[in-house]
Every structure is written in C-alpha cells, then in structure tokens.
Design a protein that fits this description.
Elements (H helix, E strand, L loop, with lengths): L1 E3 L16 H4 L14 H8 L6 E4 L6 H8 L3 E6 L2 H12 L7 H8 L8 H5 L7 H15 L4 H18 L19 H4 L2 H13 L10 E4 L12 E4 L12 H12 L26 H14 L4 E7 L6 H9 L4 E13 L6 E13 L1
Helix pairs in contact: 2-3, 4-8, 4-11, 7-8, 8-10, 12-13
Bound molecules: S-adenosylmethionine.
Length: 360
C-alpha cells in the first residue's frame, strides 16, 4: 500500500488540467457528506486514471457523478434514496430537457382538485401555510409533466427550495419559522419564490456530454456491478458521535419525492418521520463485512473510495481490505473542514479526507 500526498508518485506525472468550471458550479445542497467542496481535488486524482465509464452508487447530491460527466465519461449514478436519485436524473442523466416558463406556470397554477396532504400533515411542523399549500399543488403539478428530464429538474428545484427555506437545511427541527428569522434572504423568500429561482439554477446545469448517462434508485448491493471501468464509492461511515442517518435529516424530501405514496408516517414522532432505511455501513457490527462484500462486487473495476479520518473502520483496515481485491492501492490525502449548520449551532470538524485508489 502506498501513501501519496496530493501529488502522484514520481514517474507518474501527467499534465494536469483544472476541473471543468461548470462542475465546480454545481448547486450546493448542504447535504451531509457532500463532496462538492472537494471536487477540484477529486478531479485531480480522477483525471490521472484511465477510464471511459464510471459508476457512482452512493451519488447523494450527484456532484461527483456530474464532475465525471463533465470530464466526458459515460456515467451511471445511483443511490438508495428516491430524492437523491431524482436530483441525479436532472443533472447527470438529463442531457437536454429544461423546464420552460410555460410548464413552470402550469405546475404552480392552483387547481380545484389539488391535494392537501402536506397542508394537513405538517401543519405547525414545517414551513408556513402558504408554503405547504404550494408544496401540495406543485407536487400534483409535477406529476403532470410528461418529459422525465424536465420533471426531474422540477423535483430537484423543489428539494433545493425546501432545503433553503428550512432552518439549517435539515428536517429534524420543527415549529415556527420566525424563531429562526435573522433576516437571511433564504428564510424570507416563500417556497414558491425559491422554486422559481431553483428551476433556473437546475436548468443551467443541463448539458450533453455525448454519452448515455443514467441515474436511478438502487441499493449498492443490487446495482449491476459489471461493465464499469471505474467505480467511485462514497458510502456513509459509522460516525464517532451522533448518527449519520439520512432519513432522519431528509425524511421530508424523501416523502415529497413520491408524495408519501406507499410510505408509512411514524405518527408518534414530532416531525412525522418515515422509517429509516437500513444500510450496513452505519453500524460497527456490519460495516467491515459490508466493505469487504462491496470491494468483492466491484473487483473488476478500478475502485476509488472516499474516506474521512473520523469514520469507522479506520484507514489501515480499509486499505488492507481493498488490497485483498486489487494489486495496487494508492492513498491520497487532503485536509478538509466540514461545515454543518449555521451561526451558533455550527459545528466545524477538521478532518483529513482520503481517496483510496485500487487498481489491477
Ligand atoms: C456520503 S453520501 C454521498 C455523497 C455524495 N458523494 C456527494 O458528494 O453528494 C452517502 C450516500 O449513500 C447513500 N446510501 C447509504 N447506504 C446506501 C446503500 N446501501 N446503497 C446505496 N446508497 C446508499 C445515502 O443515501 C447517501 O446519499
């Protein structure tokens, strides 16, 4: 196993170029574990690897898959959550569809038969009455958009609008919005105003890289593993403190992605959560075995694994596991500061970020 710092080992120097600017301008979603701030460094490492096709099976915000799309590769982005898969469909799979003004006003136009699930269920929990009514009619409106690319743009815009309007961008806190109102524009704008802006933002992410890119929902252990030159793995890690449950933080967006159809609300929870999804990466007793099985599944591809120094298992263990399936393992390291939350509640953790590259 070799440890390299930010440069490649001597003898391997290849002319490096800057990351594509539109990839670096990817919409910021304040998503837990997002690698958006690390894209220039990830690009530096990726561009030295020989690959035409890539899979990102923990796509989250979609920013790394989008980077690889911007690098001209054929990209498949998957995630086990519905709302993140829709975001990747808008930005990674979608090559040409934009959501035009006429469709936008069709989506937001009130109708007599608009549903009222959000208004009824989340009264006093999230947003204002006006925002909740907007979410009900926009959700119905989005189901009427026939073009899947344009529809995905609408969903991505709706999710980012919710994240901007919701204090701290997580759905663990409920109650009166005015408690958090410190004059910030994001908290002042209505959801409908945010939505209009975000449609523009996601329209601007659309481009065609000349390849058939795909995005869909799947568990990492169910996605077809063969046929990718490179697999970028960014799973959740067992945290040292707190938890890393995506459903706990983003249950509202996961529900909104399907308008809670087929989902069971946990009525006794203050914020009307849905049940969390099991992932073996979140528990000490299952994580090591999950990494082992995952490396075995993707052993025919170059594996690039993101790891943070505050995660379990430790770097040594992961490097040794990867070396069971790959002849050569290089480790690149970079320090990174995570920001989570805002103002007094901000927690900043200085962690070291690693990329483990397994080849051969
Ligand atoms: C650290 S985040 C990925 C962040 C992403 N690389 C980005 O930059 O936005 C981990 C993601 O893995 C997903 N996930 C967790 N367990 C999974 C599983 N078993 N299969 C597929 N996705 C999973 C979560 O929904 C989450 O979006």
């Amino acid at each position: 196993m070799r440890v390299s710092d930010e440069e490649w080992s001597v003898g391997e120097a290849v002319a490096s170029s800057a990351a594509p600017p539109h990839a670096l301008a990817y919409p910021e979603l304040r998503y837990m574990g997002s690698k958006r701030r690390l894209l220039p460094w990830i690009h530096e490492v990726l561009q030295k690897l020989d690959f035409e096709s890539a899979l990102d099976p923990f796509s989250g915000t979609g920013c790394v898959a989008y980077l690889m799309k911007a690098m001209g590769r054929r990209v498949t982005a998957t995630d086990f959550l519905a709302f993140t898969s829709l975001i990747a469909r808008a930005t990674v799979e979608n090559a040409q569809s934009r959501l035009d003004r006429r469709t936008l006003s069709e989506i937001t136009r009130p109708r007599r038969d608009d549903p009222d699930f959000v208004a009824r269920t989340f009264d006093g929990i999230f947003f204002t009455a006006e925002d909740r009514a907007f979410l009900d009619r926009a959700s119905a409106g989005l189901t009427r958009v026939a073009d899947p690319g344009a529809q995905a743009i609408g969903y991505a815009a709706l999710f980012r609008a919710c994240l901007k309007r919701q204090p701290r961008g997580v759905f663990t806190v409920s109650g009166d919005l005015s408690r958090y109102d410190d004059g910030r524009r994001d908290l002042r704008l209505s959801l409908e105003e945010h939505f209009g802006e975000q449609v523009q933002v996601f329209n601007e992410t659309v481009f065609d890289n000349g390849r058939e890119n795909r995005a869909f929902r799947s568990d990492v252990f169910e996605v077809e593993a063969d046929g990718f030159d490179l697999v970028y793995l960014d799973p959740p890690y067992v945290p040292r403190s707190d938890d890393n449950c995506y459903i706990k933080r983003y249950h509202f967006l996961e529900g909104l992605a399907c308008y809670w159809r087929g989902l069971e609300l946990m009525e006794d929870t203050k914020v009307k959560k849905i049940a969390k999804r099991f992932t073996p990466f979140s528990y000490r007793r299952t994580a090591v075995d999950a990494f082992d099985r995952m490396f075995a599944r993707f052993s025919n591809s170059t594996i690039v694994l993101s790891y943070s120094s505050n995660g379990y298992p430790d770097l040594e263990t992961l490097g040794a596991l990867l070396a069971r399936y790959k002849k050569r393992v290089d480790i690149y390291e970079r320090s990174h500061r995570y920001h989570f939350g805002t103002h007094a509640s901000v927690s900043r953790a200085a962690v070291t970020e690693y990329l483990l590259v397994g080849r051969g």
